[in-house]
Design brief:
The protein is built from 5 helices and 4 strands, in the order H-H-H-E-H-E-E-H-E. By secondary structure, it is α+β, with helices and mostly antiparallel strands. A 4-stranded antiparallel β-sheet has the order 2-3-1-4, covered by helices on one side.
């Protein structure tokens, strides 16, 4: 892996649908050379897929929050499966991380109104091992 591969990765990360033609122009490399490098990165599992960037605001998901959870469990896998299975209308759990420090789990969620955060809190506190939570509304984001 060299600096050219890193440039390819950064471009693809920003624009998943960028063509090999456009990459070749940006990086001053032939299209076949770009194709070979991208294929190699995919085969190595460095590029493991491509995703769409969704404009959640246009879908009405105008409320974003970080929810921190303090839990008492020895089975984080079971807890993560419970969180994954939460079915709350108008809720998108965008990220969920086990972390070190004061809190055990941090989740990034999206919903359509601030009132829906209460429904999220209610459902979370039905899970026995969740002992405490803290919700912070996201006012704006530099990177999203």
């Amino acid at each position: 892996m060299d600096s050219l591969d890193m440039q390819i990765i950064k471009n693809i990360e920003k624009e998943g649908r960028i063509s090999h033609e456009e990459l070749s122009k940006r990086l001053n490399l032939s299209r076949p050379a770009i194709h070979n490098r991208v294929t190699k990165l995919e085969e190595q599992g460095i590029i493991s897929g491509y995703k769409a960037n969704i404009n959640w605001m246009k879908l009405g998901y105008t409320t974003n929050a970080m929810i921190s959870l303090r839990v008492r469990t020895t089975d984080y896998d079971k807890l993560l499966m419970q969180l994954k299975k939460l079915e709350i209308p108008n809720l998108v759990i965008e990220e969920c991380h086990i972390v070190t420090g004061t809190w055990c789990i941090i989740m990034k969620v999206r919903c359509t109104t601030p009132l829906e955060l209460k429904a999220i809190q209610d459902e979370l506190h039905k899970i026995e091992c969740i002992k405490e939570s803290s919700t912070s509304l996201i006012l704006s984001s530099i990177y999203d």
